[in-house]
Amino acid sequence: MAEQLLGLPVANALSERVAARAAELTKGGVTPTLAIIRVGERDDDLSYERGALKRCEKVGVAVKRFVLAADCTQEELMAAIAEVNADSSIHGCLMFRPLPKTLDEQAACAALDPAKDVDCITEGSLFGVFANRKVGFAPCTAEACIEILDHYGYELSGANVTVVGRSLVIGKPVSMMLQARNATVTMCHTRTRDLAAECRKAEILVVAAGHIGTVGASAVAPGQVVIDVGINWDESAGKLCGDVSYDEVEPIVAAITPVPRGVGSVTTAVLAKHVVEAAERQQG
What we know:
The chain has a six-stranded parallel β-sheet. The chain is globular, with a radius of gyration of 19 Å. It starts with a strand and ends with a helix. Helix 1 packs parallel to helix 10 (267-283). The chain folds into two domains: 29-113, Rossmann fold, CATH 3.40.50; 140-265, Rossmann fold (3-Layer(aba) Sandwich), CATH 3.40.50.720. It is an alpha/beta fold and 284 residues long. The chain has ten helices and eleven strands. It is 41% helix and 16% strand.
């Protein structure tokens, strides 16, 4: 039976460290503050917002919300972003996406100050991830994968890691972050020729393809560590599931993150960490 790499212990340990850093800032008269820009009332946005508010309160990060109607204009959205950029008391900004199709999402992302971009929606933050420089911040979910591996004591330097997925949200950034930690990374995707064979070669397998059942029993090997980043709704089973067929894979591998209660549990703690780090950077 594989070890379950639960996210809650990781999130709690990270939150404890972040709270100590936030307290130091507060002693110096600086309250780390997150701005949340939300357009409309999407259920998934509201769910994540509730989690973020709870986590921020726990670690001492203040939150200012900018809530716009689903039918808001581009001008109203850009004005909210400009207000966030201009407010020196706001250190980080989370803007929920996707935006309604009536809005220019690319322009909105480009308008945000990369120094306040705590979830990697700007080109400046992406540059920081790819160049391994402190410009902006990595995507919270991608960094959550690294936090889990670190927490459970898996050595990344020299490890053979296969990443399934090539999005700018998870696949590409997490590959760069792993390489920055001296892992040897193979990037795959759903059109990789003989994907299962490539996956079996890995010591650590990170799956972020966005499709149910991308990785099954034929794609894993004994001793592997599997990080399942996917979150999908399985209509037939009536429940959330990952990109990995958990029931097939769990008896074979050494360790695996469940879905839910895995990677997703760590993302709000990483978000709070980024806000605190942004505040620290601002202080020099």
